[in-house]
Every structure is written in structure tokens, then in C-alpha cells.
């Protein structure tokens, strides 16, 4: 069984949608350790509502914070401190998709960031979305992963295709290209299942 840790080059790049697609493709379980804000319609709710299979299980957040801010700041408002010792992975006999919050270096407390939740054996899926500066953000993110010793790094591009952007990122990083999720006008279970079928082989070979 494998763990797929999904992170992004920033916020609002499509991590949650892609998490749903990967969960559906692999019939994996899903866990978002830290949710900040929107607790009534959390990312766990969104992924669960987009997945069709009956195998996937959805685990509760280790931390559910009230304010939509960086986890360290949201935790301070809630008068708590995020402690990595309290973030324990579910013990399961299935593939697991873990969704991070924001980018790799989003702080959890004064010492730890999202990247510190990752483990050496994880398959890291980085979501990259084209915008001015996204090449730099993507290359910096992959460099940060490589400096930590992660070797299983894949990229999913989110949004409209930009060949020159995508090719230079793949050329400079040697990260595995897992696929692209186009700009979706309609997001529902049927479309997620369609996109999951397209990614299934590359994810299983990753």
C-alpha cells in the first residue's frame, strides 16, 4: 500500500479537486490532517462528495481550525498550538491520499511546516497551475523536496495547457509527469470519475 501526499505550489491551485480525482482513481482512503476554516464544507466534505466508489474511507482532521488562515495563525486564534506528535496517520490496509494545506512551507507552528508532515516513503504529488511566477514557484517547491531527500516526486498540471511552461519544469526537475487536469466548467462525480480514469495508469506506475 502506498501513501500519496498531495501538495501545491501555492493556494487555490486545485489540490482538493485533484485529491478527489486521485482518491477515485486508486479507490484510496483520504485524510486532510489540518483544516483551517470552512468547517461546515471542509475539503474532506468536498472530496467525499466528488468520489463515486464505495471503498474509500474519509478520516477526521487531526486539527480543525475555525479561521481560514495559515494553520499557525488559525491555531493561535483558537488558542492552541499544532503539535506534530498529535498528527498520527490512520492505520489502514489501503492506499492513502493525504492532502496538505497550501504549499510546502506553510507554517504549522514556530518550527514545523507542511513539508514536515511528509515521510521518506511517501509518493509526493505536486500540483502546479500556470500563472505568472508559477515556474519559479514550482521549481522552488521541487528543490525544497529534493533537499529533504524526497525522490518520488510527481507533477500534475492543473488548468489549461501551457507547453513551454510545462516542458521547462519537467526538463529542469526530472519529476514524473502524472497528467493534466483541464479547466473544468462543471465539477461533479461524473467528471471526477472521467478524469480519474485518465490518470489511473500513470498513478499506478508512479
CATH homologous superfamily (4th level) name: P-loop containing nucleotide triphosphate hydrolases
CATH class: Alpha Beta
Strand tally is: 9
Point out poorly predicted stretches: none
CATH topology: Rossmann fold
Strand order, biggest sheet? Answer: 4-2-6-1-7-8-9
Q: What share of the residues lie within helices?
A: 25-40%
Shape: globular
Q: What does the largest sheet look like?
A: 7 strands, parallel
Tell me the structural class: alpha/beta
- Percentage of residues in strands: 15-25%
Subcellular location: Cytoplasm
Cofactor: Mg(2+)
Function: Catalyzes a mechanistically unusual reaction, the ATP-dependent insertion of CO2 between the N7 and N8 nitrogen atoms of 7,8-diaminopelargonic acid (DAPA, also called 7,8-diammoniononanoate) to form a ureido ring.
Main location: cytoplasm
Commentary on this structure:
The structure is a single chain. This protein is of the alpha/beta class and 206 residues long. The protein has one domain (3-205): Rossmann fold. The chain is built from 6 helices and 9 strands, in the order βαββαββαββαβαβα. It has helices at residues 15-26, 43-50, 71-77, 134-147, 163-173, 189-205, and strands at 3-8, 29-31, 34-36, 58-59, 63-65, 96-103, 123-129, 153-158, 176-181. The strands form 2 sheets. Strands 4-2-6-1-7-8-9 form a 7-stranded parallel β-sheet, sandwiched between helices. The chain has a two-stranded parallel ribbon with strand order 3-5. The longest helix is centred in the last third of the chain and has 17 residues, at 189-205. The mean pLDDT is 96. It holds the Pfam family AAA_26. Its EC number is 6.3.3.3. This is ATP-dependent dethiobiotin synthetase BioD. It catalyses: (7R,8S)-7,8-diammoniononanoate + CO2 + ATP = (4R,5S)-dethiobiotin + ADP + phosphate + 3 H(+); (7R,8S)-8-amino-7-(carboxyamino)nonanoate + ATP = (4R,5S)-dethiobiotin + ADP + phosphate + H(+). Its cofactor is Mg(2+).
Amino acid at each position: 500500500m502506498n501513501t500519496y501526499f498531495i501538495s501545491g505550489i501555492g493556494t487555490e491551485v486545485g489540490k482538493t479537486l485533484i485529491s478527489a480525482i486521485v482518491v477515485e482513481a486508486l479507490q484510496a482512503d483520504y485524510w486532510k490532517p489540518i483544516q483551517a476554516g470552512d468547517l461546515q464544507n471542509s475539503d474532506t466534505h468536498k472530496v467525499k462528495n466528488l468520489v463515486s466508489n464505495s471503498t474509500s474511507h474519509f478520516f477526521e482532521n487531526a486539527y480543525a481550525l475555525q479561521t481560514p488562515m495559515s494553520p499557525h495563525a488559525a491555531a493561535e486564534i483558537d488558542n492552541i498550538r499544532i503539535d506534530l506528535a498529535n498528527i498520527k496517520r490512520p492505520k489502514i490496509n489501503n492506499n492513502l491520499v493525504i492532502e496538505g494545506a497550501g504549499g510546502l512551507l506553510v507554517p504549522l507552528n514556530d518550527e514545523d511546516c507542511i513539508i514536515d508532515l511528509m515521510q521518506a516513503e511517501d509518493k509526493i504529488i505536486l500540483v502546479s497551475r500556470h500563472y505568472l511566477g508559477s515556474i519559479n514557484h514550482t521549481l522552488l517547491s521541487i528543490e525544497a523536496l529534493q533537499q529533504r531527500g524526497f525522490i518520488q516526486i510527481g507533477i500534475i498540471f492543473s488548468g489549461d495547457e501551457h507547453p513551454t511552461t510545462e516542458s521547462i519544469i519537467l526538463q529542469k526537475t526530472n519529476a514524473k509527469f502524472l497528467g493534466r487536469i483541464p479547466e473544468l466548467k462543471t465539477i461533479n462525480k461524473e467528471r471526477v470519475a472521467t478524469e480519474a480514469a485518465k490518470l489511473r495508469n500513470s498513478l499506478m506506475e508512479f
